[in-house]
């Protein structure tokens, strides 16, 4: 009996130890209220600053990443989706899906200084460091607008054969684009300014968020309830991992080797990248319903997600639930 009791205690201790190790160290530490109503999309942190930018209906709200204090608003960004920065030029850029345009603003005072016509419904936007161009993913015209951030004009348009959702770069001339309605990633050669490959990510469907680890050459595509890991050199599927439903954003913390998916169902799936071929789901961290996009502060390891509270769905009601007025907020998730 004593021997059985000892074994039972040992097994219990082992289980507790495994559970302790399995925890990711993330938790929601703050809820920052943000003024204004309407929907939201991407959130982004200006490099080397405390300024957090949130795409919010017809404007961009700017808050302090530490305490949530309001730092300004960029108005008249109709149907804004995303924000990109070119610190060397002291400029920022917003993708305005409702007006098929990009707004150019100054980083020092947030004043809008120009508007650039793009393809139809520009969604994700980012600064591509190899070509030194701003790129928008245009959902309805199914192409990319390649923008000169100095001249403020579109210099190339690249058809991608489907709805581009998010794009990332390897910093060496290749851009990878999630094609949401084709369940694939296309590869764009920034020297040729054309698509050079189409990679299926089956069984992943409706890819949205996308990040790249340029050390391991791995792409991480957030799908409906899967995280697909793709070899960025040849397009092969390396891993298929379960995540929470409603993912619209993926972030990578290179120091922690964590890939985190923000899931609209109300949690954040944390995946550990042990090496280029070994991945493990560590935890589903509770967040809030609707917190589906995110950005990471690599200096502090904090992750930020916009969301709001919702009205109850009525019987027979379809579509997205209505947002409760005055409840828009940003979650600050810290790593301890």
Architecture overview:
- With 336 residues, the chain is mostly beta strands.
- Residues 1-22 have low confidence and may be disordered.
- The protein is globular, with a radius of gyration of 21 Å.
- The protein contains one helix and 28 strands.
- The strands form seven sheets. It has a four-stranded antiparallel β-sheet with strand order 1-28-27-26, with no helix packed on it. A four-stranded antiparallel β-sheet has the order 2-3-4-5, with no helix packed on it.
- The relative contact order is 0.12.
Topology:
Elements: H1 2-22, E1 26-33, E2 40-45, E3 51-56, E4 59-64, E5 70-74, E6 80-86, E7 91-96, E8 101-106, E9 112-117, E10 122-128, E11 133-138, E12 143-148, E13 153-159, E14 164-169, E15 174-179, E16 184-189, E17 194-200, E18 210-213, E19 218-222, E20 226-231, E21 237-242, E22 247-253, E23 258-263, E24 267-275, E25 278-286, E26 295-296, E27 303-307, E28 329-335
Antiparallel strand pairs: 1-28, 2-3, 3-4, 4-5, 6-7, 7-8, 8-9, 10-11, 11-12, 12-13, 14-15, 15-16, 16-17, 18-19, 19-20, 20-21, 22-23, 23-24, 24-25, 26-27, 27-28
In short:
By secondary structure, the protein is mainly β. It has one helix spanning 2-22; strands at residues 26-33, 40-45, 51-56, 59-64, 70-74, 80-86, 91-96, 101-106, 112-117, 122-128, 133-138, 143-148, 153-159, 164-169, 174-179, 184-189, 194-200, 210-213, 218-222, 226-231, 237-242, 247-253, 258-263, 267-275, 278-286, 295-296, 303-307, 329-335. The strands form 7 sheets. The chain has a 4-stranded antiparallel β-sheet with strand order 1-28-27-26, with no helix packed on it. It has a 4-stranded antiparallel β-sheet with strand order 2-3-4-5, with no helix packed on it.
């Amino acid at each position: 009996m004593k021997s059985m009791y000892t074994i039972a205690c040992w097994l219990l201790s082992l289980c507790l130890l495994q559970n302790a190790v399995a925890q990711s160290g993330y938790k929601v530490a703050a809820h920052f209220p943000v003024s204004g109503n309407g929907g939201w999309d991407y959130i982004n942190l200006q490099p080397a600053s405390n300024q957090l930018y949130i795409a919010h209906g017809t404007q961009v709200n700017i808050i302090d990443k530490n305490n949530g204090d309001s730092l300004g608003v960029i108005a008249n960004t109709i149907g804004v989706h995303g924000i990109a920065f070119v610190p060397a030029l002291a400029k920022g850029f917003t993708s305005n899906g409702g007006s098929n345009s990009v707004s150019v603003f100054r980083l020092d005072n947030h004043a809008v200084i120009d508007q650039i016509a793009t393809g139809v419904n520009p969604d994700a936007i980012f600064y591509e460091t190899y070509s030194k161009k701003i790129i928008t993913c245009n959902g309805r015209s199914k192409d990319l607008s390649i923008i000169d951030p100095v001249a403020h004009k579109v210099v190339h348009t690249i058809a991608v054969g489907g709805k581009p959702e998010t794009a990332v770069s390897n910093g060496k001339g290749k851009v990878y684009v999630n094609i949401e309605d084709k369940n694939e990633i296309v590869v764009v050669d920034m020297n040729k300014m054309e698509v050079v490959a189409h990679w299926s990510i089956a069984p992943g469907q409706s890819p949205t968020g996308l990040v790249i680890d340029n050390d391991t050459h791995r792409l991480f595509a957030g799908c409906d309830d899967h995280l697909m890991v793709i070899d960025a050199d040849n397009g092969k599927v390396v891993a298929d991992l379960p995540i929470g439903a409603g993912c619209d954003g993926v972030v990578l913390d290179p120091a922690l080797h964590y890939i985190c998916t923000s899931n609209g169902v109300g949690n954040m799936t944390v995946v550990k990248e042990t090496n280029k071929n070994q991945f493990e789901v560590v935890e589903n961290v509770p967040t809030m319903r609707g917190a589906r996009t995110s950005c990471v502060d690599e200096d502090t390891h904090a992750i930020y997600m916009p969301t709001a509270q919702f009205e109850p769905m009525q019987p027979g009601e379809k579509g997205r639930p209505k947002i409760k007025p005055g409840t828009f907020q940003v979650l600050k998730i810290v790593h301890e």
